[in-house]
Amino acid sequence: MDSEIQKNHLKAYGITYWTLEKGFKAQWLLNYEGGSFLLENTPEIENECRIRGVTYQVISDLQAEKILEEISSPSQNMEAVLLEKAPKIAVYSPKDKLPWDDAVTMVLTYAEIPFDVIYDEEVLEEKLLLYEWLHLHHEDFTGQYGKFYGAYRTAPWYIEEKKNLENLSAKLGFSKVSQEKLAVAKKIRDYVIGGGFMFAMCSATDSFDIALSAEGVDICESMFDGDPSDINYQSQIDYSRTLAFKDFELERSPVLYEFSSIDMTRKRRIQRTSDYFSLMTFSAKWDPIPTMLCQNHTMLVKGFMGQTTSFDRNTIKSSILVMGENKSNSEARYIHGTKGKGMFTFYGGHDPEDYSHRVGDPKTELDLHPNSPGYRLILNNVLFPAAKKKKQKT
After folding, report:
1. How far apart are the C-alpha atoms of 306 and 302, rounded to whole Å?
2. What CATH architecture does domain 89-386 belong to?
3. 8 A C-beta contact, residue 199 and residue 336
4. For the chain, what are the domain ranges?
5. How much is the pTM?
6. Which contiguous run of DSSP H or E holds residue 89?
7. Beta-strand pair 197-201/342-347
8. Which of 191, 268, 318, 326 could cross-link with 128 by S-S, CB 3.0 to 4.6 Å?
9. Phi/psi at 336 (nearest 5 deg)?
10. 367-382 confidence digits (pLDDT tens)
């Protein structure tokens, strides 16, 4: 899985997932040649690699033993992690969304990793319990329809989406979309607390925490829910309810495409040609979880925009681990935390290979980006629940 040899990093994750599905053994060799996978040598796996265009190397048992011996050395920042079972995956997304509206849906499809699409009805019916891993489509959990009002309030797609969300909320017994989305957010939070793994990108990250923090408070203006917001609602925000963020200021204007001060999009002073973020280095033997989540063939990843591009370091709770950052702009791009028995990862930006994705932009063709470091970070999270868990030493 290094940068020089592997022809298709993304499909390699699909091969590893397929291997686990078939009941074969697999190990993730953290920090060894770009985070390689050690799979059983079977004709089926070799054939699948050839079909999918994934580079592989057949080695002897003796060579494998030597690699594992090298990895186990205390002098090496490496670790071999056993992958036990292919996690059952759910993508939280409106059923009518096109696949290329969401980077995770695209890369799962490209890597040939199976998943189910679920939405509010399934979440409220406790269907999350069927899954080990959940991705949140770039959703707005605050009931403000993505804050698209300023630019798109007369667009047919916006009018239709607003109508559909209002109808769904009424069907589920709620008088407002914001109330229904809060109920969904709380179910997802409880899923994490109970031991689930949750991954979110773009606006699903901050809008999720904002919705939880504003329970019992009306932060929506009349064009969103038919009545004015609560006076001085900022003072009623409860940061203790959130997963990752604190001390943020909500954006009151309904015509501004922004939720709060968490997002750095309007505070960025970075040229596109120099927009990169760096991944942190962790001890593979002592901190295998963040090491797994940061496996890549480069430590420098191209930046990309989104409604929520990145996170202001001042709004991140001290208990949250920053795994990717742009130090020059004091922003975090990739963060991880725990809640109860479960874990979550937030990743800023919309599409790692579409710098400034906008409404109506064409689909990203991943065949043109089979070695994308930005997309590898997503797939690290997909395989992460398959790893045999060890007690952390720190």
Report:
1. 13
2. 3-Layer(aba) Sandwich (3.40)
3. no
4. 9-83, 89-386
5. 0.95
6. strand 89-92
7. parallel
8. 191
9. -145, 145
10. 999 999 999 999 999 9
Span 72-84, pLDDT tens digits: 999 999 999 999 9
Burial class (CB in 10 A: 0-12, 13-18, 19+), 14: buried
User: CA–CA distance from 240 to each of 139, 178, 262 (Å)?
Assistant: 22, 20, 16
Longest pairwise C-alpha distance within the chain: 71
Position 356: which residue type?
S
Q: For residue 91, what is the enclosing H or E element?
A: strand 89-92
DSSP, res 132: S
- From the list 147, 141, 148, 36, the residue with the least C-alpha distance to 83 is 36
Q: Give one DSSP letter per residue of 280-344, joined into a string.
A: PP--TTT-HHHHHHT--S-SEEE----SS--EEGGGB-TTSEEEEEEGGGTEEEEEEEEETTEEE
CA distance linking residue 116 with residue 123, whole number of Å: 12
Using an 8 Å Cβ cutoff, are 299 and 279 in contact? yes
Dihedral sign for Cα 35, 1, 321, 86, please: negative
- Please report the DSSP string for 200-252 in residue order: EETHHHHHHHHHHHTTT-----HHHHSSPPPTTGGGG--GGG-SSB-S--B--
If one counts every other C-beta atom within 10 angstroms of the C-beta of residue 363, the result is 12
**What dihedral angle (degrees, nearest 10) is formed by the CA atoms of 173, 175, 177, 179?**
-80
| 95 — pLDDT class (breaks 50, 70, 90) | confident
